[in-house]
Amino acid sequence: MMIARSHSLSKLKPLISISLISQSFKSKPPSPHLPPNPNPQFQTPSKLQPLTFFQPLSSSSSSSQPLPPLSLSRDGNYDEAPAAPVCPGCGVHMQESDPKTPGFFLKPSKKDPRSYKLGPHLEPVALESEFNEALKKGFMIEPEDLSLVSKLDGLGSESKPEKPVVCARCHALRHYGRVKDLTVENLLPDFDFYHTVGRKLALASGTRQVVLMVVDAADFDGSFPRMVAKLVSDTIDENAAAWKQGKAGNVPRVVLVVTKIDLLPSSLGPTRLEHWVRSRAREGGVEKITSVHLVSAVRDWGLRNLVDDVASLAGPRGNVWAIGAQNAGKSTLINAIGKHGGGKITHLTEAPVPGTTLGIVRVEGVLPGKTKLFDTPGLLNPHQITTRLTREEQSLVNISKELKPRTYRIKDGYSVHIAGLMRLDIEESSVDSVYVTAWESPYLPLHMGKTENASEMVEKHFGRHLQPPIGENRVKELGQWVRKEFHINGNSWDSSSVDIAVAGLGWFAVGLKGEAVLSVWTYDGIDVVLRNSLLPNRSFNFEVSGFTVSKIVSKADKASTKSKRQGEKKKKKQIDHQKDSVTC
Predict the structure, then answer these.
(1) Measured between alpha carbons, how far is 170 from 179 in angstroms, rounded to an integer?
(2) What is the C-alpha to C-alpha distance for residues 189 and 227, in angstroms, rounded to an integer?
(3) pTM for the whole structure
């Protein structure tokens, strides 16, 4: 009967007759002239064991011993044999004793592939209407080889390879896109890059080291790891000098990987983008870059060249370190590399929230030979504005679609707001008009108006029409509103000359033919950078003064307005009803 539940009817037709006739023999007393049944799997229904469809999930089996208490760490599984199992999704040490401690997981129960997810609508073969024609005529067809039964049974038990078990936090991020309990993450210590990774890169001897410096194309300056760049550059200079003197000198190779280039407009050519990236990287502290790769893990752009280059640089036994800021796309990049290099599927957790990876995750088999690839926790940049935002506010600021320009043509004494997070003022200029193009998430509202009304905007519209911050109380929580002044020169009306970028948010591209004094307002401690323009092209359709409302805010306003109208109508009906009752 178990065979019947595991296979289609077409495979079972030669065996149906045997099953039914053997059951009829079993229902009668055994005859001394008949030999014993050589196939014990053909039994009467009374002797069949009941099928177990589900087993309750439990954190530990009765026979398994609880794991010893673990010290909270972010070292992950760098070593060959870590002291405790490590989550393959985020790199945290796993435990099954305390759900309020990082790394908690539930051990899945083993399931019978022949009975797991067996639908109640399926009927036993004996109740189905289609039977073998030989059986209907009363003939018995025996299979030539009884081992065919076991072969057919083996075919039904084949199953796909099981997915690795991940911690409860990774499960929530993969299936719900959020972390259910943020307080659990706070128990982990801060990731000490210099202790866990920096000292390994600084070794003068040992295996060859390749550093994949991962940077977000849509937030280059905000996601560029300047402290790591300085450490690697100093190590290269020291080890290169030692190597020239005949001493041991293991010089790390730096591969700058710019991810999420699918978010940039297609009008930006790769040659110009690479030139711009190299220039910004030198200003960020990286003097010696082995190679630059522009990739998109979502659209598989540039991954093949990246894999080949990294494999040649690392050699057959090297170590490759993926390093970058939080939410720069390291885990997504490694998962995409796994598909292109060797076809090994990796299981790193991907989520559009900062800090997805908690510890070092060792990935083997992705690159040729015995080369090891390590995913590291995202580096926290306190000067990024996203570090001060809530999860809901981060979802609005996060750029997930191709950037579109929104251009204003304004003059002295006017300002442009990006939500309640950034403001640009035109204080003085030698020309009548200045072209200001906002490059940011399409879910953020904009506003253009007179600078003299800026203080009123903060009091009346921050947290409401200009979100984020979401809510009036959040405005004070983000910090003090401060000003930074910039003197710029431009030589063209048709294209932008400079960018003024806020880390973690976006940037204003400014185009003019002359000189101007601009001031930028944002929260204290947030990085504001003046740089050459990344996207010089502006929109030919200008935005008008007032609010340029995003889709989300527009829907929220409509919903609130609708609820207010419904409340007013309901109140009016109640008043009219009371008047009618009094009249009666």
Answers:
(1) 8
(2) 19
(3) 0.67
